[in-house]
Specification:
Coagulation Factor XIII, Chain A, domain 1, alpha+beta, rod-shaped, 251 residues, 3 domains
């Protein structure tokens, strides 16, 4: 490879090692001018404009790395490894790696806390799900909250019913019935609904009774225990001969 001094136009022969050591910077052996050899690098020797011959007596001097403000290359390392690393990549390499573990733990803890708050805020609706209620009971035991009574009227079974004339009160009916809860947990006392219809199925009368009305007094327990029969006795005004059918429901 050849290059030419831009000042005196002297032609100099080079090797790849010369270019690598000086990072392409040379000092002319004739006029001592420092120049960039890469700008005029050629595979064949160029002709000097002034007719000067190729300089052989004074070959170019390779500029040392110290003159360029760089650390000298380690001779034991390959020449390609002697290229200095950019300052911005050295800063990234020397920077301590981020510790993502604590951030993940903090994010997981915040997510768990938010989920717990949402569950506690909606515990009234969620507690009516039989599969979720046991978990909510444990959660409320830990956080000191209360769960509303379980309520599933479809789990209440009517065991017995009877409607007939009152034995001692004229123009009155005596209604007796019994029911029990088959829910897995104690549930709220239901509302008893009694409807009467005529022969054609048209509604004649309807009334709903609270727990104190169909028990005759406030219940001894705040909730209806599972599997325990409950006796009902009601005295009603006789709606007349139109009331043929009677139907019981729980709300």
């Amino acid at each position: 490879m050849f290059t030419q001094c831009p000042h005196c136009l002297s032609v100099h022969a080079l090797t790849a090692a010369d270019l690598a050591v000086g990072r392409g910077r040379l000092r002319c052996g004739v006029c001592e001018t420092e120049f960039d050899a890469l700008e005029r690098l050629a595979d064949t020797a160029p002709q000097a404009a002034s007719g000067l011959r190729r300089s052989e007596a004074a070959p170019p001097r390779v500029i040392a790395a110290a003159e360029l403000g760089m650390a000298p290359a380690d001779p034991a390392r390959p020449k390609s490894a002697a290229i200095s690393e950019p300052a911005f990549t050295r800063g990234l390499r020397n920077r301590a790696p981020l510790r993502s573990g604590p951030w993940w733990l903090a994010s997981a803890a915040l997510g768990l806390l938010l989920s717990t708050q949402i569950v506690l805020a909606q515990r009234a609706e969620l507690s009516q799900d039989p599969s979720l209620r046991p978990w909510l009971q444990r959660l409320c035991s830990a956080f000191g909250c209360d769960l509303p009574a379980y309520s599933d009227p479809t789990q209440i079974r009517l065991l017995h019913r009877d409607v007939g004339p009152h034995p001692s009160v004229p123009d009155a009916l005596l209604v007796t019935a019994s029911f029990r809860s088959e829910a897995p947990w104690p549930q709220a006392w239901p509302v008893l609904e009694l409807s009467m219809s005529d022969l054609e199925g048209r509604l004649v009368a309807l009334r709903r009774f609270g727990v104190s009305e169909y028990l005759g007094q406030p219940p001894e327990q705040p909730t209806l225990p599972p599997g325990q029969p409950v006796m009902v006795e009601l005295e009603l005004l006789d709606p007349g001969n139109q009331a043929i059918a009677f139907e019981f429901g729980f709300l």
